[in-house]
Amino acid sequence: MKRRDFLWRGALAGVALAAACRRDGGEPAVPIAAAASCASYDGALLRAAVSDLAGRLGALDKVRRHDSVLLKVNLTGGAAAARAYMEQQGIVPWETYWTHPDVIRVVAELYRDAGAGRIWVADALFGSDGYALGGYRDRLALLAELIDLDQPGPSGGFASRAVPGALRYPSFRLREEVDQCDHLAAVVKMKCHQSCGLTLGLKGHIGLVPVSEYRLQPGDQSRSLLHGAPEEAGRILPQGIVDLNLARPIDFSLIDGIFSAEGGEGPWSPAFHALRPGLLVAGTDAVAADAVAAYLMGFDPEAADFTAPFSASLNHIRLAGDHGLGECRLGKIAYSGPDLDSLRCPFRACGQPLARPAYSQ
Questions:
Q1: What is the value of pTM for the model shown?
Q2: 143 and 103 in contact (C-beta within 8 Å)?
Q3: Separation of alpha carbons 350 and 344, rounded Å
Q4: How far is CA 187 from CA 156, 190, 283, 312, 337, in A?
Q5: Per-residue pLDDT tens over the stretch 77-115
Q6: Start-to-end Cα distance in the chain
Q7: DSSP label at 300?
Q8: Which of the residues 224, 249, 255, 353 has the least number of beta carbons within 10 Å of its own beta carbon?
């Protein structure tokens, strides 16, 4: 798509989304995605914003008393690296590339208030205790069990979950809580990603599977099996993202773009730079939520494969939409919230020239 065509589409996005929010007979459709401004992590402001988004979507309406809920969060890179970046460069992970603990806390409180009986907060922790940094444990211990998806569950092993309509992987090995939970919410950070363009709700699912089960060589520190060799990573990783979402779809996606960063998924990315977009995006359709977030970041969610922001890969958002996981076309998304153009905060994609200091706030 040419730049002028995308700009023209962007100018019409608010009209298209507004139209999509009404059925053929004029009756308002139930929204599947929503967005809002939220300038800080202040407790009252944050709870009001998240509660409003969830309410507009009816996101927790299906929660029943004693249901189990798993909140898949994003603490990428592990605590050891995060501590080093804080000490050496002053980069605060929860203000740039980790889901903020107060966002997780608010979502956990909303599920508890809706009747959930057991709540897990989960991510793969790269061999270190990410929950020990930033007050995660203090804020969440009374609300949820904090688990490491790299470690076996209570049974002592990993469960196997089939992938219906798989693109590449017929099944996945993962902790039993992922397999057993009644509701799965993705509570993630709004970021770009060097290997697959963007990391939002859908991409966060890569962290569901343990590194030990998905590496090509015993010494690999990442899920190298899901990336493949460098020359094929741009196709294999997006297919793995889609397969993981087919195996366990997201029931509610909340994307934390209050404080974030552009240019990469973490400070190991050469062009990493802190931003404060002041945004929250939510969806009961994870593909639609990712599409709206991508647009707010200044990108076309339907961009062609191997074009910005998906310069190194297939467009996994469109791939997910094409395989029945949700709606990626902005004009078809029933949306609730302010005009999207009024919320936009353009991010610099990975690989774009750095025109400012690599890290500043």
A1: 0.92
A2: no
A3: 18
A4: 26, 10, 11, 25, 19
A5: 999 999 999 999 999 999 999 999 999 999 999 999 999
A6: 33
A7: -
A8: 353
